[in-house]
Amino acid sequence: MSMEIKQHLRLSQQLVMTPQLQQAIKLLQLSRMELVDVVREEMLENPILEDGGENAPDAAKALDAKTVESASDAERAGETELPVVEVAAEAQGTQEVQAESRADGAVADFDWEGYLENQAQSAPMPSYKSNNEDMPSLEATLTRGTSLFDHLEWQLKLGHFTHEEDGIAMLIIGNLTQEGYLQEPIEDLAEEAGVDVELAEAVLRRVQEFDPVGVAARTLKECLLIQARHFGHDDEVLVAMIERHLPNLEKKNFTAIAKDLNQPVEEIYEAAKVLREFDPKPGRQYTAEEPTYITPDVFIHKVGDKYFVVANDDGLPKLKISDFYRTALVGGTKAKEYIQEKLRSAQWLIRSIQQRQRTIVRVTESILKFQRDFFEKGTAHLKPLILRDVADDIGMHESTVSRVTTNKYVHTPQGIFELKYFFNSGISRTDGDDLASEAVKLKIKQIISTESPKNPHSDQKIVELLRDQNIEIARRTVAKYREQLRILSSSKRREMF
């Protein structure tokens, strides 16, 4: 058997994910807050990047859209192709990824001096200044909320506790849930503090006298009994209702309670009215969590009869190339290779961010085209829409549209909504036109808001009322939408007094 070396020519097509494309895809699916964190982290690692909005007297050096166009001209002069970010790793993206690889290879011969010269002569980066009418006042953001632990610790310091009692009290306070309940067994806390169970129980009863009333209870029954004693309503009927008939109280089965306690139904009604004033979650009014204010990624403005989509660049770092390294590169120092490497990284980051903004605007414009009736008339006119509809409209893959619409918000004349909000399944109507699920939820909410409190509509009754409006829907679907709206069932919505 002879062995020989031969050459074979084989043509194949491969999907290549360059680091630049991976970065672009990552940036595309980040929320606004995450994007700001990533940019600032990159600024710490890459000395070439600077924030043109901080201590930058020469704002004209900030990189804007014109800079990218100038850089594009320079790259085209150097026979360098620009990347296509929005269609990476999709079924249609193979050829574009290969073009990306060729661009990455040609970027080594890029004319950085010409690029930086064009950048220095570019106009300032435009930034949209949002209207602050919807934002909280400055005074509302200067203080933080008081947590339940801090509130109870403050009261503990005012009480006369021994050193041993103070230790077990701190263990009790530290093991409370956000609602104010003690879920850890008192025996375990006593063992951890090295005290007797009797002493731990005594300290627990003292902590239960703290504000808010009912805190440090171990069960709902104990919480309500503490409040009944505190407010002087611990009569025999109310205590018996709390201890033996909480399930019947939840169902508003006052007749069964009256029969078991041998009391008139009117007496049970009056006791239930008092019980309604108690707080089953006393700790929820104290929280240390700061509210998260949503900053929209894009604005939709109505001017006359036309709508305009504007990207929100306010709050994002105004990236620019450092003057120091620009001078070092032109001067031809020994660090030129290092600077060029960092410049490539900075260039890709800036391009990816700007491509991200353009992609969000394109997707929002497509949503505006499909859901124009919503922006004109409100949620009741929301139409069924899926990701593929928008993807086909703008020529992108639907997974790219999914990335764009995740954790992105738009400010509209109807309010602030997540971009995902506009994608709804359709509910059939007898007149032939489908209705979006969000519009059906709104109709269910309106039906329930106008019902009689003493005779609320059942889910089947809501189905019949919707059928009168030419909406065909199953009872289980109504129940699912009602639960999503956090609306109780008809038996729990019924008011007896």
List the helices and strands and how they pair.
Blueprint (H helix, E strand, L loop, with lengths): L18 H10 L3 H14 L3 E3 L13 H13 L16 H13 L5 H9 L27 H11 L4 H12 L11 H8 L3 H11 L12 H11 L5 H9 L1 H6 L2 H8 L3 H12 L21 E6 L2 E6 L7 E3 L1 H8 L5 H35 L1 H6 L9 H8 L3 H8 L3 E4 L2 E4 L7 E2 L7 E2 H13 L9 H10 L6 H10 L5 H4 L4
Parallel strand pairs: 2-5
Antiparallel strand pairs: 1-4, 2-3, 5-6, 7-8
Helix pairs in contact: 1-16, 3-5, 6-7, 7-8, 7-9, 8-9, 10-11, 13-14, 16-18, 18-19, 21-22
Could you name the key traits of this structure?
497 residues, 23 helices, alpha+beta, four-stranded mixed β-sheet, 4 domains
Explain this structure to me?
- The chain has 497 residues and is an alpha+beta fold.
- The protein has four domains: 19-126 and 316-354, no CATH class; 148-285, no CATH class; 298-314 and 372-422, no CATH class; 426-493, Arc Repressor Mutant, subunit A, CATH 1.10.10.60.
- It contains 23 helices and eight strands.
- The strands form three sheets. Strands 3-2-5-6 form a four-stranded mixed sheet.
- Helix 7 (163-174) packs across helix 8, helix 8 crosses helix 9 (197-207) and helix 10 runs antiparallel to helix 11.
- The longest helix has 35 residues, at 336-370.
- The chain is extended, with a radius of gyration of 32 Å.
- The chain starts with 18 loop residues before the first helix and ends with a helix.
- Residues 54-109 and 123-130 have low confidence and may be disordered.
